Automatic annotation (TrEMBL):
GO terms for molecular function: glycosyltransferase activity. This is Anthranilate phosphoribosyltransferase family protein. It comes from Geitlerinema calcuttense NRMC-F 0142. Residues 6-67 form the Glycosyl transferase family 3 N-terminal domain. Keywords: Amino-acid biosynthesis, Aromatic amino acid biosynthesis, Glycosyltransferase, Transferase. It comes from the Bacteria. Gene3D superfamilies: Nucleoside phosphorylase/phosphoribosyltransferase catalytic domain, Transferase, Pyrimidine Nucleoside Phosphorylase, Chain C. The keyword Transferase applies. InterPro entries: Anthranilate_Pribosyl_Tfrase (IPR005940), Glycosyl_Trfase_fam3 (IPR000312), Glycosyl_Trfase_fam3_N_dom (IPR017459), Glycosyl_Trfase_fam3_N_dom_sf (IPR036320), Nuc_phospho_transferase (IPR035902). Residues 96-334 form the Glycosyl transferase family domain.
């Protein structure tokens, strides 16, 4: 296999004039060989750097997603009124701005929109705060649960989290290479589009650089994804900023293109500075203040994001009603109660495992 992989490496690593893009099957095979360690370590490192320099194509990312779908875990379909929302966030976390997606997930779950997030531990190259650590601070310990237990929590509460070290160990073992090469490899872009769910879904994928959105579009079209929204979000996440105009791409299958939406927070009296991230304990205190409906910048960010996602998930007919509904859910204590329910369900699963390992 290392000899076969060398041929794929030669295609992407031959320099700016003679390198070639991989076909979708070739990209799928390349990632499979790397994940299963059939390629040699030197080959893996060389491929990741060469592929980063060449830049991935949407077709290559589609092939890599094919491999993730073949080797990775999948939560089973739910019978719900709304499609399950998949919130894609960079695996190397956040270091400058407070993450909002856990609050967004709780808001959506209050309205029967199931939400699945995924990620791992602190990860190169940023080593920012991962979502798992945020959930832990809120009293939700996902790390010990089997995939079957996550499925039960998802069915009971509407929130699920796929944790790489526990549920996709071959992908987690690949993290070491990210540290060794010191650069974010193209598979980090692919992970933003991964949907570890077998049912109907609506993918929300964040990005920083505009060319990434075009790669999303090509990749997801090739894979037949019809429900997806792109967000030029905070640090590449799908969290909307309140400090600038939100650039949203809503894919329209009929025209096979994006409907571009520009949202100005000032038009909804929600403009302001994005909340900086200083430490996890401070972030958790800020989130708990939001759950108590205490006035503050993070509360406004939660309403801005919650309202947007309620609208895009078809719970509310427009953004204005989405914002109003998100605020009601927080002020009434329903979002706080959803967190209590979630923490209770997760702890129950952990205790069941301890009693019957």
């Amino acid at each position: 296999m290392s000899h076969a992989f060398r041929e794929l490496l030669k295609k992407v690593g031959s320099g700016p004039h003679t390198s070639e893009n991989l076909t979708r099957p070739e990209a799928a095979e390349a990632l499979r060989a790397m994940l299963l360690q059939e390629a040699k370590p030197a080959q893996i490192g060389a491929f990741l750097i060469a592929h980063r320099i060449k830049r991935p194509t949407g077709e290559e990312l589609a092939g890599m997603l094919d491999t993730y779908e073949a080797l990775g875990p999948k939560l089973l379909p739910l019978s719900r009124r709304y499609h399950t929302a998949i919130l894609g966030s960079p695996y190397d976390g956040r270091s400058r701005t407070a993450p909002i997606s856990p609050l967004t997930a709780l808001i959506l779950a209050c309205c029967e929109v199931p939400v699945i997030l995924h990620g791992g531990e602190r990860m190169p190259t940023k080593y920012g705060v991962p979502l798992l650590e945020v959930w832990q601070g809120l009293g939700v310990e996902w790390g010990d649960l089997s995939l079957a237990q996550v499925q039960q929590v998802l069915e009971a509460t509407g929130v699920g989290f796929v944790y790489l070290p526990q549920h996709f160990p071959v992908a987690h073992a690949f993290v070491e290479y990210r540290d060794q090469i010191g650069k974010r490899p193209p598979i980090a872009t692919m992970e933003l589009m991964w949907c570890p769910y077998a049912g109907d879904k609506h993918l929300f994928a964040g990005y920083v650089h505009p060319p990434t959105e075009n790669m999303f579009k090509t990749c997801l079209e090739l894979r037949g994804m019809e429900q997806f929204t792109t967000v030029k979000g905070l640090e590449g996440s799908c969290d909307l900023s309140r400090d600038r105009t939100a650039i949203i791409g809503c894919y329209v299958p009929e025209i096979q293109d994006f409907e571009r939406i520009l949202l100005h927070p000032r038009d909804y009296e929600l403009a302001g500075a994005d909340v900086p991230f200083h430490s996890t304990p401070e972030l958790i205190d800020q989130m708990r203040a939001v759950l108590q409906a205490e006035a503050g910048e993070l509360l406004k960010s939660a309403i801005w994001n919650g309202g947007f996602y309620l609208w895009r998930s078809q719970v509310c007919p427009d953004l204005e009603s989405g914002l109003a509904h998100a605020e009601r859910l927080i002020v009434s204590g329903q979002v706080r109660d959803k967190l209590v329910q979630l923490a209770t369900q997760v702890e129950s699963q952990r205790l069941n495992y301890s009693a019957h390992p």
